[in-house]
Design brief:
Radius of gyration: 26 Å
Number of strands: 6
Order of helices and strands: EHEEHHEHHEEHHHHHHHHHH
Number of helices: 15
CATH architecture of the largest domain: 3-Layer(aba) Sandwich
Structural class: alpha/beta
Strand content: 5-15%
Largest sheet: 6 strands, mixed
CATH topology of the largest domain: Rossmann fold
Shape: elongated
Distance between the termini: 30 Å
Length: about 350
């Protein structure tokens, strides 16, 4: 059963620690993911009450390391009710340090931060630490029994000061119960997406990942579609010629006889070569192309199902829907709800803040 991410998801509040020693790129990487998640949720249900909020957390008496414009516009609107610890995540960014020995004094410089992290974890709240920000988890005992990895420049130091933590993980992002961690400062984006997936809404998190992180398969598919190069130009074979024609004419009706003529081959020979090279028939390959085109159109357009069906070579939406469901296990409409980045036509020219 699908859920409406704008109305069924319990509210989650995220507080990102901001210290003078913070790598500001990691602070704003977290905020960027949160802002995108908020936008995706808003697009999916324009009139639903927002269930995600965030703010920067600066210890009392500590001047935020910002520009003279201050913090305006960085935080979201405050939640209507104070969030519980169980629905609040405290995020510690990466910290500047010339060497590992500077890390413990840096963390101990902020006893209020250490006390709050400890109390928050004891109350069931989640904590996320980025790279050298791991020192705050180490100083508060949150690493005990955890399995994760640390940045190579500081790993030996952390192994020495936290002997009851397993640093053998090879994952860039680790999740140990309510503790999230990432190895490198550039991992803040992935870690924030991971905590949204675990604690907020997996569908929204997946949408953020597809925008914020490199999607190698999608990138390759896009490049291939743009260049129309599914095989090397030197592969002048019946399969290559047939593939080229199918890719350029996805919306055309399937005609094996005409396709064989384009490939300068007999129908039987073309079928045999296609099966040998690709492990499928030309029709199966065409149907896969049609599904891939439909997925992109469902994600980035507001075209009707009939229009998308026609663009994918089907005269009616019903036949198209059956093929799509058989290939992906969900209907085109369900896929659009999960992955769309567009709002309804009736919402055009209406500000998201309204």
């Amino acid at each position: 059963m699908m859920t409406n991410s704008a109305t069924d998801t319990p509210h989650l509040h995220v507080e990102v620690l901001c210290l003078p020693e913070a790598m500001l790129g990691t602070v704003f990487s977290a905020v960027d993911v949160l802002r995108l998640a908020f936008l995706v949720q808003k697009l999916r249900n324009r009139h639903g009450a927002p269930s995600l909020s965030w703010s920067l957390w600066t210890p009392e008496g500590c001047a935020p390391p910002m520009t003279e414009r201050g913090l305006q516009g960085v935080a979201s609107a405050a939640p209507s009710e104070p969030p519980t610890p169980q629905r609040t995540v405290l995020v510690v960014p990466a910290l500047y340090a010339a060497n590992a020995l500077e890390l413990p004094p840096l963390a101990q410089r902020y006893p209020d931060v250490l006390a709050r992290l400890t109390a928050h974890a004891e109350q069931g709240g989640a904590v996320a630490v980025c790279s050298t920000g791991l020192i705050f988890a180490a100083e508060t005992g949150l690493l005990k029994g955890a399995r994760l990895d640390a940045h190579w420049a500081f790993k030996a130091f952390f192994i020495r000061i936290v002997p009851d933590c397993d640093f053998s993980s090879t994952e860039a992002v680790s999740v140990n119960g309510g503790l999230f961690s990432c190895v490198a400062p550039t991992g803040m984006t992935s870690m924030t997406i991971a905590l949204l997936e675990q604690l907020f809404d997996a569908e929204v998190a997946n949408s953020c990942a597809r925008i914020m992180e490199l999607q190698a398969d999608r990138q390759q598919l896009g490049n291939q579609q743009l260049a129309q190069k599914w095989l090397s130009r030197t592969a002048d074979s019946p399969v290559y010629r047939a593939k080229q024609w199918l890719e350029m004419n996805v919306e055309q009706a399937y005609d094996l006889k005409a396709l064989a003529a384009v490939a300068s081959s007999s129908e039987r020979t073309l079928l045999r070569h296609f099966q040998t090279v690709l492990g499928m028939t030309p029709l199966e390959y065409l149907q896969d192309l049609r599904v891939q085109r439909a997925k992109v159109m469902l994600e980035i357009s507001i075209n009707s199902m009939q229009t998308i069906a026609h663009a994918c070579g089907y005269n009616n939406a019903s036949t198209f829907g059956k093929l799509f469901r058989r290939a992906l296990g969900i209907s085109p409409g369900e896929y659009r709800k999960l992955h769309t980045f567009r709002t309804k036509r009736s919402h055009w020219r209406v500000g998201l803040e309204d």
